[in-house]
Amino acid sequence: MSAALDFRLPAALEASAPPEDRGLPRDAVRLMVARGGAPLRHGVFRDLAAHLRPGDLVVVNESATIPAAVEAEREDGDRVQLHFSTPDPDGAGWLVELRRDGFRVVDGRAGEVLTLPGGATATLAEADGAVPRLWRARLDLGGRAVLGYLAGHGAPIRYAHDLAERPLGAYQTLFSRVPGSAEMPSAGRPFTPRVLDGLAARGVGVARLTLHTGVSSLEVGEPPYAERFAVPPATAAAVDATHRAGRRVIAVGTTVTRALESAAAPDGTVRPASGWTDLTITSERGVRAVDGLLTGWHEPEASHLLLLEAVAGRPLVERSYAAAVALGYRWHEFGDTHLLLP
Predict the structure, then answer these.
(1) Closest CA to 249 of 286, 277, 305, 240
(2) Element housing 315 (H / E)
(3) Which domains does the chain have, with CATH numbers?
(4) CA–CA separation, 153 vs 70, rounded Å?
(5) What is the pLDDT of residues 98-155, one digit of tens each?
(6) Which of 7, 101, 205, 308 is most buried, most CB within 10 Å of its CB?
(7) Host H or E run for residue 264
């Protein structure tokens, strides 16, 4: 596995705000286009179609963001936020994380009972083996289903780079249809009906799948953990038809890349698939079904960068990230965008 990219995110660039805060549509974010062997191009997301070819296929994530953050009180009276990440793949409870003001809480202990709103409780059972900052928790929600409980008592997850209170709708994309993501599949956020019209006029197709993200604030050395996904038959067929025609499949986000690659055979053929994926995509593993990637900007320690290198190669990723820092591209879920076409 390659070493992390060596760059530092300037403090002035860390905070990000959606275009709506500036009276602009979502598609007003900046777009950098990085092609192998060509100069970097800088534009606006609304012009995405101009950078694609007729017959290309854009694949998007239909997962909708849930209000996964709940105020909690610890046994000593300390107030924290409990972030619901994913159901436990083993079927017992949920994986959760403790945070305070956007930062990780490190002193959770097995057996600790947290009091939640509405008379609910969460008992920390054991730390996750692969990602110790996540806890397996047993939930007592008074007979309520998790999504129903969160709808009444939860709020969108926020981190220290942007603690502004925004409605849940600010964390949804144009494609949000199936509730389940702890955090927004943010690569799809800048899409608007105008962008889709432009893709259709250009002859670029759009296909859909679902991958429900867990808490995505991966820390140094942490592998991506298991997430739920579904690649429907129509999308698998569209990907295969695109490749047979000699055209490109562009994944919108690392979530779509992980889902497609989890459904891909060694020869790149994609078949309908659903369930849990624990696939980690690195340069050594490479990609089989994805030819390009539309994504946001990730911090230097993020494991997402390994996936970008697998799609585009390290030299192109290094070149575009150096330019993003120098030119003031905005980071994080409400930031600018990056189209990698190796």
Answers:
(1) 240
(2) helix 314-326
(3) 11-65+166-341 (3.40.1780.10), 69-153 (2.40.10)
(4) 7
(5) 999 888 898 999 999 999 999 999 999 988 766 678 899 999 999 999 999 999 999 9
(6) 308
(7) none
